[in-house]
Structures are given as C-alpha cells and as structure tokens.
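Entry 12.
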Amino acid sequence: QLVESGGGSVQPGGSLRLSCAASGDFLSVYAIGWFRQAPGKEREGVACISSGNSRSTYADSGKGRFTISRVENTVLLQMNNLRPEDTAVYYCAIYRDWPRPCPLILSSSDFHSWGQGTQVTVSS
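Predicted 3D structure (tokens):
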C-alpha cells in the first residue's frame, strides 16, 4: 500500500511537493506513476518515473511545471505554477509487477497498489 502526502490549498501560481511512500524498499525498484482525479472526471496520468530512474514520462498538462523524482524509497512530485485546473485528488501507484521503464502513455489500468490520495486545491 502506498501513502501519498503533501497536498493542500494554494493560490494560482503557487507550488506544492507531493510525496509517495511505502513500507519496504520496493519504491526504489519499480516504475511509479502519479495520477489525479477531479470531481466528475476520469483518473488521468500526470507523471511517471522508471525503474532505475532511467526515464520520466509527463502528461502534457504537467510538462514544464511538474517534476517527478525519486529519493531512496520516496517518489516526489514537485508542482510549480499551479493552476485552478490542477485541482484534484492525486494518487501514486506501481507500474506492472516487475521493474521496467514507464509507458509513453499513462493508463491507470496498467498501475496498481493505489494509495488513498492527497487533495490539491488551487484557488484564489
């Protein structure tokens, strides 16, 4: 089970850093993705970091503003220049069942072991 944290309320243009953690050391082994789900919308991929940190994938919505990284057994999502449309519950999850690069297209059906999510609200 993964645990997300770091959400909160910020004004447009603000920043937040989300963390994804788990017991054990498997977060350092597998590709990990961040997704988000706004009310009434489907869950959408935001970013993914490959096993071995070899490649990162970003959805168009976050390119240039979001940065995914891994520090030991924690995966971080740094979000800058936040917009109201970034408001959602953010989740992290594991890609497939063995270490491999992230997919080019982030589909929630390819990920598992979802955490409970952390709320991000961007509003003036």
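Annotation: The CA atoms of residues 5 and 15 lie 14 Å apart. The radius of gyration is 13 Å.
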